[in-house]
């Protein structure tokens, strides 16, 4: 994409109206389970006034919503943005993450030679030139370690070819209302997603999950919002799971 078109897209992303966005309803927080870490990262620098010519406030608001959402589900959650959100920081924490959230630029990036892999850009306080956190980078650290709730609030990382679910040991299968694939759920977007649409979708998602809906039901509630033409979200994992932190109790095959 040309620099001019990229600039225009960024401006449109930042000023698009979040039609139908539900206010984030913070339910009474569940008990925090200290053993179950979650990390929420948001790229604020690449969307700042000095980088795109307008001040996009959605990255900070998305981070705040994610932090509240994970904490309400019992995760011990830390948030990173600006210069503190780096590739090094992501990889240093990922082995202990039961939950992970990121907002920023995502795509199927060139990895080496003609090889591509899905990933997202670090913040590192940079407008351009930020490093890519590839799915294979995360896989190399986690080495198949299971995770619970993973949300990729970026472009492209919800597409059928994405390698990111496997990095968190989440199979690319959809266990529906009467099926079960374990206590895990992956959420991502297809194609180009505007910040306003991501905010509208995610605030509805977090609000729905708080009153007691499972992750799949919360996804369906979130889809009822009003979005720009072309916006689409996708999921993998267990529709009926609650999203709560940690593994299931011993002997429990389908705990809600």
Secondary-structure map:
Blueprint (H helix, E strand, L loop, with lengths): L2 H13 L21 E6 L6 H4 L5 H15 L3 E6 L5 H7 L3 E7 L2 E7 L2 E7 L10 E3 H8 L6 E5 L10 H4 L6 E2 L9 E5 L5 H15 L5 H8 L10 E6 L18
Parallel strand pairs: 1-2, 1-3, 3-7, 7-9, 8-10
Antiparallel strand pairs: 4-5, 5-6, 9-10
Helix pairs in contact: 3-7, 7-8
Describe the overall structure.
- With 256 residues, the protein is α/β, with parallel strands linked by helices.
- The chain is built from eight helices and ten strands.
- A hairpin with a 2-residue loop joins β4 and β5 (115-121).
- The chain has a single domain, classed as 3-Layer(aba) Sandwich (Rossmann fold), CATH 3.40.50.12660.
- It is 29% helix and 21% strand.
- The strands form two sheets. Strands 2-1-3-7-9-10-8 form a seven-stranded mixed β-sheet, covered by helices on one side. A three-stranded antiparallel β-sheet has the order 4-5-6.
- It has helices spanning 3-15, 49-52, 58-72, 87-93, 135-142, 164-167, 195-209, 215-222, and strands spanning 37-42, 76-81, 97-103, 106-112, 115-121, 132-134, 149-153, 174-175, 185-189, 233-238.
């Amino acid at each position: 994409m040309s620099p001019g078109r990229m600039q225009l897209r960024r401006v449109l992303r930042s000023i698009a109206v979040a039609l139908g966005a539900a206010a984030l309803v913070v339910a009474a927080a569940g008990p925090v389970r200290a053993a179950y870490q979650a990390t929420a990262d948001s790229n604020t620098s690449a969307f700042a006034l000095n980088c795109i010519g307008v001040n996009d406030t959605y990255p900070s608001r998305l981070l705040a919503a994610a932090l509240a959402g994970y904490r309400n589900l019992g995760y011990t959650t830390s948030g990173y943005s600006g210069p503190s959100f780096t590739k090094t920081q992501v990889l240093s924490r990922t082995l202990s993450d039961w939950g992970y959230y990121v907002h920023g630029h995502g795509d199927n990036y060139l990895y080496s030679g003609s090889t591509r892999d899905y990933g997202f850009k670090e913040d590192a306080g940079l407008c351009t030139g930020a490093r890519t956190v590839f799915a294979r980078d995360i896989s190399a650290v986690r080495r198949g370690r299971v995770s619970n709730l993973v949300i990729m609030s970026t472009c492209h990382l919800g597409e059928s070819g994405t390698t990111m679910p496997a990095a968190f040991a989440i199979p690319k299968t959809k266990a529906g209302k009467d099926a079960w694939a374990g206590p895990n759920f992956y959420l991502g977007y297809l194609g180009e997603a505007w910040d306003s649409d991501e905010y509208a979708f995610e605030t509805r998602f977090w609000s729905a999950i708080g009153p007691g809906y499972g992750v799949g039901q919360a996804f369906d509630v979130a889809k009822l919002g009003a979005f720009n033409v072309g916006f689409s979200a996708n999921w993998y994992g267990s529709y009926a799971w609650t999203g709560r932190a940690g593994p299931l109790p011993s002997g429990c095959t389908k705990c809600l």
